[in-house]
Write a structure and sequence with these properties.
The complex is a heterodimer of chains A (288) and B (370).
Chain A lengths: L3 H32 L6 H19 L2 H23 L7 H23 L15 E4 L2 E4 H23 L1 H11 L1 H6 L4 H23 L9 H16 L4 H21 L4 H15 L10
Antiparallel strand pairs in A: 1-2
Helix pairs in contact in A: 1-5, 1-8, 1-9, 1-10, 2-3, 2-4, 2-8, 2-9, 3-8, 5-6, 9-10, 9-11, 10-11
Chain B lengths: L3 H5 L21 H21 L7 H27 L6 H17 L4 H23 L5 H20 L1 H4 L17 H24 L1 H11 L1 H6 L4 H27 L9 H14 L6 H19 L3 H15 L3 H13 L18 H14 L1
Helix pairs in contact in B: 3-8, 3-11, 3-12, 3-13, 4-5, 4-6, 4-11, 5-11, 8-11, 9-11, 9-16, 12-13, 12-15, 13-14
The chains are: A mainly alpha (288), B mainly alpha (370).
């Protein structure tokens, strides 16, 4: 259990799990940073994205097509949720959160209706296949692929946020909503757009992650909780925090599940509880 | 209350837009809604006592017990969110921890007294931990802490199998002999519901309850008045957690079984859904909400596959259009019938700072310091 090869594989397992978490958590944290909404439907978006990605890529034989379909459908759903539902309760923390819980119930049940209760996984045919070998060490390419996608998405998010006009508007919106509205930016549309982007990230995470762990009923709550842990540790609203938090939780979770399975959940939620008590704004967050 | 400071600085209502402007026992015209409450309570009391004599079969009685147990749990959440402005997503896990306490005692072959002792002891310890971890947070962060601690408990229940039997759960947990029959147990649960409601009502009416509402409405003001806000929160959590633990013990005696699902986040979510459906801060709200949720879960589910869809839609509609919940909606309706439309009630965010409710809260709070 402690051979270098095994530890190396677990390391990569942790990183690829962390990469899935990052794809998921970055969407959650961006939405929170701008809109101050903890979107409890984020896990349901992941689940729906996962199912759609599986079904469409199996039909078309192409992962990219599945990914686009997942993003499109989840994006439209997110538009509906934000534009039609959340506007009723704008600015009221608790009703916002509870509303997204309701959305999560509905989406999860519709998924059960359409896709059934059996666990489903991304068909092997559309995944990058095979494994790479260095001496005794082998590891499936798919894990590396997930890490690559996460890095790509993360870099893209950072560049958009730091270098583009849209990114500047979003950053300004995070800092001072009233001021950016006064300067002629329709912050409502920025909100709507950000909510869709967040949901799209969840859909990507769902589709890509479906090659790693199967999608089934209940997964929406599990991934949501992991994502919450990540963004709370990293700091709500911070992409860098989401990255660090994802890697940390991914590694902790994988190693804990191997070495101390009895306390598997404990090892993930204890750091979160500690961070909340000692540094409530998270490692990279600004004080609320 | 002509203190200009009160007028100038609007009372900030943190955390929620859910708390009705009218809390029991404050504000003009409360007598009428109180009268409605008393009539409602008396009706429910009589109905509850008479139920086994109305030809209800064992299924109905047992289902009613389930509703009452859920209502006790919902009351504990309702107290915290209604009086303290703290929305918890961890109460299901507290109830679960209590259930596991009883289950563990039963697994060791200890008698019923030890079950009670262990269940309530664990409840107090767990509630204290919750309270300590969450005492400096509010709003969304409070929600997160309670969620996290709840997940810790769920994780232990599911993985620490030497003590909890893991996902298999603990079965055959016996309740006291004198409660063996389903109708005997029903009356016991009913009595416990009345006791729990009475306890929470008394606490709500006490100076402690008033201070809690003060903290809900303006934490900073209470702090500057010299209140130790974090410890008030811990106290509130302990009371609420104790009631939740009671619900957990009753639940495990009802079903004779406990598994990680009983401590899962869904239970906590259901509890808060019940509170919202019924009406935050109302006395009867938790019972109404519990009845709706349990009936959808247990009765509707045998006719329709998509009961969760229905529950979710009902929940969304209530949040969008009936923010004060069913009980609040009824009270509003009654007031409207009586032609009493002077003060808005139960709307999303009432104009802050000009409420009789918030002012009288502060009056009570000050009286207590004097």
């Amino acid at each position: 259990m402690f051979t270098p090869v095994f530890i190396g594989q677990q390391l990569l397992n942790g990183l690829s799990f962390g990469a899935t978490l990052f794809l998921l958590a970055s969407g959650l944290t961006l939405v929170f940073g701008l809109m101050r909404i903890v979107n409890m439907a984020h896990g349901a978006f992941y689940m729906l994205g996962g199912y759609l990605g599986i079904v469409v890529s199996a039909l078309s034989g192409n992962l990219l097509v599945g990914l686009i379909a997942a993003i499109a459908v989840v994006g439209v759903l997110a538009f509906f949720v934000e534009f039609v539902l959340l506007r009723f309760v704008r600015g009221q923390e608790l009703p916002e959160v509870l509303l997204t819980i309701g959305v999560s119930f509905v989406v999860a049940d519709i998924c059960l209706w359409i896709f059934g209760g059996d666990p489903q996984q991304l068909p092997a045919a559309v995944r990058p296949q095979g494994a790479f070998t260095i001496g005794d060490f082998t590891y499936p390419w798919y894990g590396v692929f997930i890490i690559g996608v996460a890095i790509l998405v993360g870099v893209a998010l950072v560049i958009v946020q730091a270098k583009t006009r849209v990114g500047a508007i979003v950053r300004a919106g995070v800092d001072d909503r009233e001021m950016i509205s006064a300067m002629g930016v329709n912050i409502r549309w920025v909100f709507t757009g950000m909510f869709i982007v967040g949901a799209a990230l969840a859909a990507i995470a769902g589709t890509i992650g479906a090659g790693r762990t199967p999608i089934l009923q209940g997964v929406q709550n599990e991934v949501l909780l992991y994502a919450l842990v990540v963004i709370i540790i990293g700091g709500l609203g911070s992409i860098a925090g989401a990255a660090v938090g994802s890697i940390a939780i991914g590694l902790i979770d994988v190693f804990a599940k191997t070495w101390i399975p009895e306390f598997a959940y404990f090892t993930v939620f204890l750091p979160m509880a500690l961070v909340l008590v000692i540094r409530p704004q998270g490692l990279f967050g600004k004080a609320a | 209350m002509s203190n200009p400071a009160t007028r100038v600085n609007p009372v900030v209502r943190p955390a929620t837009g859910l708390i009705p402007s009218r809390v029991p026992g404050s504000g003009g015209g409360f007598f009428r809604s109180r009268a409605v409450q008393i009539i409602g309570l008396a009706l429910i009391f009589v109905l509850g006592l008479a139920l086994p004599y109305l030809g209800a079969n064992s299924f109905t009685i047992s289902l009613t017990s389930t509703i009452l147990i859920a209502a006790i749990l919902a009351s504990s959440v309702n107290f915290l969110v209604g009086e303290g402005g703290m929305a918890s997503l961890g109460h299901g896990a507290i109830a679960g921890a209590a259930a596991y306490g009883a289950g563990f005692a039963s697994k060791q072959g200890w008698d019923v007294g030890m079950q009670v002792l262990l269940a309530l002891g664990i409840t107090l310890v767990v509630s204290f931990v919750y309270g300590i971890l969450s005492m400096r947070t509010s709003g969304i962060y409070f929600l997160m802490v309670t969620l996290a601690v709840g997940m810790l408990i769920f994780g232990l229940a599911s993985k620490y199998s030497t003590v909890t039997n893991g996902d298999t759960g603990i079965a055959n947990i016996a309740r006291p002999d004198f409660l063996g029959e389903y109708w005997q147990y029903y009356y016991f649960v009913f009595a416990m519901f009345v006791v729990a409601t009475a306890i929470l009502w008394l606490v709500t009416r006490s100076p402690f309850g008033a201070s809690l509402r003060g903290i809900r409405d303006s934490e900073s003001r209470m702090r500057s008045l010299g209140y130790s806000v974090p410890w008030y929160k811990v106290g509130a959590f302990m009371i609420s957690g104790f009631i939740a633990g009671l619900a957990g013990l009753l639940a495990v005696w009802h079903t004779h079984f406990v598994s990680p699902t009983s401590a899962g986040v869904e239970r906590s979510i259901f509890a808060i859904v019940m509170v919202i459906l019924g009406g935050v801060g109302t006395l009867l709200g938790p019972l109404i909400g519990a009845a709706i949720v349990v009936l959808i879960e247990n009765v509707l589910s045998s006719y329709v596959d998509r009961w969760q869809l229905v529950l979710g839609l009902v929940f969304i509609l209530v949040i969008l259009f009936l923010r004060a919940g069913v009980a609040g909606g009824i009270a509003k309706l009654v007031r409207r019938i009586r032609g009493r439309t002077t003060s808005p009630s139960g709307g999303g965010s009432p104009p802050p700072g000009v409420e009789p409710a918030s002012n009288s809260n502060h009056t009570t709070a000050r009286k207590e310091t004097a």
